[in-house]
Amino acid sequence: MTETDSIAYDVVVLGAGPVGENIADRTRAAGLSTAVVESELVGGECSYWACMPSKALLRPGLAQADARRLPGLAQAVQGPLDAAAVLARRNGFTGNWNDDGQIQWLDGIGVDFYRGHGRLAGPKKVEVTGSDGERHVLTAGHAVAVSTGSRAVLPDLPGLADIKPWTSREATSAQTVPGRLIVIGGGVVATEMATAWHALGSKVTLLVRGKGLLNRMEPFAGEMVAAALTEAGVDVRTGTSVTSVTRENGTIVAVTDNGDRIEADEILFATGRAPRTDDIGLDTIGLEPGSWLEVDDSLRVTGSDWLYAVGDVNHRALLTHQGKYQARIAGAAIAARASGVSLLDSDPWSAHAATADHSAVPQVVFTDPEAAAVGLSLAEAEQAGHRVRAVDYDLGSVAGASLYGDDYRGRARMVVDLEREILLGVTFVGPGVGELIHSATIAVAGQVPISRLWHAVPSYPTISEVWLRLLESYRDN
């Protein structure tokens, strides 16, 4: 093993996914010398095993489903998808799992990159060990930012490791279509991958331990997605747990708690995430290895004046777009403190406070139908003690929805705070609603009064006209 002299930077970033890249971009733009450490691919989970490849897998099937709802076009798209072409295009989205372009981008903005395993080695110090054994010691004058993300969690089932199950990584990077696929879970990864692989030709069985799908959204979202998956041919079984999994002569056999025996070629466990903090030296600064890191609204770790935890590792919102939002906040806070500002702007809507992570987190689930939500559900709002009213509307009754097909099925809900007459949450379910959610995010994050929303006129004929119908329903009932 060789060792270089200690190298000084203003900021050291552990993890080069979208979050780490954005922290580096903001601190470097502020004139701070910055180094980024990554043991895998620059671009992280989102670029290679999550957001981008999963959406590349999903889009052809969703486009085909949209086309089949349109008379005159439906007859032209009745054949199966060209799975090889879809997988090849997906590979292109990941750059064939090559990060040369991402490294060039870091170099272009003046950030030094270290490939290797990075560990904290006491306050403001990071040790990097490369695959060749070369060791670097980096010191941070102002801040170390941990943005190492999260990993998939597998259940404690005997022999599970021996059958080599899929996690989200294998599900988004597989190079062949399994004839039969079991998906375990009822969340975003489970529903999206069931949608994608079914469209590509797999016979999919979806096993859900709970009562329904997408339990962090309004109940009707999961109900509508489950109904559509079932109608499409996915075998959806709720209230079902797997008690054992084996591989017999190449075939996976899963046994459920009610004694059912299900055979498949592959099995995907989409059963939760854990922070990638187990081997990054947290013990050297008095923190628990493998733990989520608690932070304030400037993303600084509780009890520290130099350590930041940004993205999945702080467990505030495990979403790429929220992690990038946090990165912009953290970068601004680090730069402000480095310039001598000891007390940051107390305004919760300042550039130094991650306010939206408390009240206006948006998410889109790219199933068919899509499900999109921002803010609080009705149950969450009531549990938080707000006096609220839910206003629902059938999206299929909006004029613009008919342009998507003759049998458009969807639903919209806004949760109104009756004291302040602002929106606490909005949920849409239906084809194409992912493009609606940003308008809802602006309304929720900006706390736009309903009296002002009346004057935001939706274009006709678009499904955005649902805003008018929701407001009319609130006024008239």
Automatic annotation (TrEMBL):
Pyridine nucleotide-disulphide oxidoreductase dimerisation domain segment(s): 361-467
Keyword entries, A-Z: FAD, Flavoprotein, NAD, Oxidoreductase
Statement: the UniProt record of this protein carries the keyword Flavoprotein: yes
Pfam families: Pyr_redox_2, Pyr_redox_dim
Cofactors demanded by this protein: FAD
Enzyme Commission (EC) number: 1.-.-.-
SUPFAM superfamilies: FAD/NAD(P)-binding domain (SSF51905), FAD/NAD-linked reductases, dimerisation (C-terminal) domain (SSF55424)
One of the record's GO molecular function terms: oxidoreductase activity
Gene3D superfamilies: 3.30.390.30, FAD/NAD(P)-binding domain
Stretches assigned to the FAD/NAD(P)-binding domain: 9-321
Family to which the UniProt record says this protein belongs: Belongs to the class-I pyridine nucleotide-disulfide oxidoreductase family.
Name listed for the protein in its UniProt record: Dihydrolipoyl dehydrogenase family protein
